[in-house]
Amino acid sequence: MKIRQRLWTPAVGWTDGSPAAGDRDQLVLAFGSPDALRQQGLFDQLRAWHPNALIVGCSTAGEILGTRVHDDCLVATAVQFERSVIDWVLVPVAEDTDGREAAEQIALKLVRPGLRHVMTFCDGLVVNGTSFAKALRERLPEGICATGGLAADSDRFIETLVMCNGIGQSRHVVGIGFYGDDLLVGYGSVGGWDSFGPLRTVTRSRGNVLFELDGKSALELYKSYLGEHSCGLPATGLRFPLLLEDGRGGAGLVRTVLGIDEASGSMTFGGDIPEGAKARLMKANFDRLVDGASGAASEGLRRLGRDDAQLAVLISCVGRKLVLRQRIEEEIDGVREVLGDTALAGFYSYGELCPQGTLGGCELHNQTMTITTFSEV
After folding, report:
1. Are 237 and 267 in contact (CB under 8 A)?
2. Where would I find the H helices in the chain?
3. By its UniProt entry, which SMART domains does this protein fall under (predicted)?
4. Are 377 and 182 in contact (CB under 8 A)?
5. Residue 291 has pLDDT above 90, yes or no
6. Which residues contact 26 (CB under 8 A, 6 or more apart)?
């Protein structure tokens, strides 16, 4: 596997992290700001450098290249596999649908003999990550997992884009299938937040919209914790995700705030909030967030079955970025310490897709660092 990376910034343009690869590249992962993904000239340049590659990616809340985190830029990672192949499918998300049908179409197109893994990027504001992940779990064969993330738009929550062989588009999802007996894929997803306050019951919800906890307005509860910062919702709510306990002593699932509705007193989260579920608010623990990133890297290597991953795709939540602020690169440094010379690329998201714990398939996570590792043997 050969990997070459480039960075584009508005001030400087393209900087050559490594030379263009020519026509043997099969895949270019492109993560950038919505403005960057809308620029036809940037896509045309990538196409000129990599004429036969699938150029795919999404908009972000920050771009990862090596151990650096960039904002409002474009990171391009070109991959030339030696003995593996890829396939892809781009699916529009229709109005008044939650993305389930799109996930089913991804599985329908990509499932065939030789499939080793699926990676997917989704419009982060129109796809219900819970429904999308559930459909992938149901449609993918046993032993085939999916990872990926929900596109982001910094902390603006206005429009998110998916790129697939053209400039970015809203209301789309893309799936990439990886095939070949010589390809190894690992994954890991770890949080690092601390829960606090009483255990509460979800007493009214609909899908990923939460109305009440313990019979009281969820929005008013959040405002009471945020105080003067409540005027910054939904962005400030990213600092207080919600933990849904699994009832079996496991890690549970974390859900992050994506929107609010003052009229109904409701809050929209990155995944479903089932009625009757037990939930706790969470807050940041800086050291545990950094340790969580290292833990995700270690888990990715363990599942890879070797300690020399060639490529790692890092997808971390925008909420972690807002909390860590100037310490943001510490979580990437922690990943580097575990993975060594592995090429690192990725982005900050509105949700992360990865199997949960020892379970296969796919699950929606919020506020985690999710890492997918690749190696050819």
Report:
1. yes
2. 34-37, 40-49, 100-110, 129-139, 218-226, 286-304, 318-324, 328-339
3. FIST, FIST_C
4. yes
5. no
6. 52, 53, 54, 79, 80, 81, 85, 86
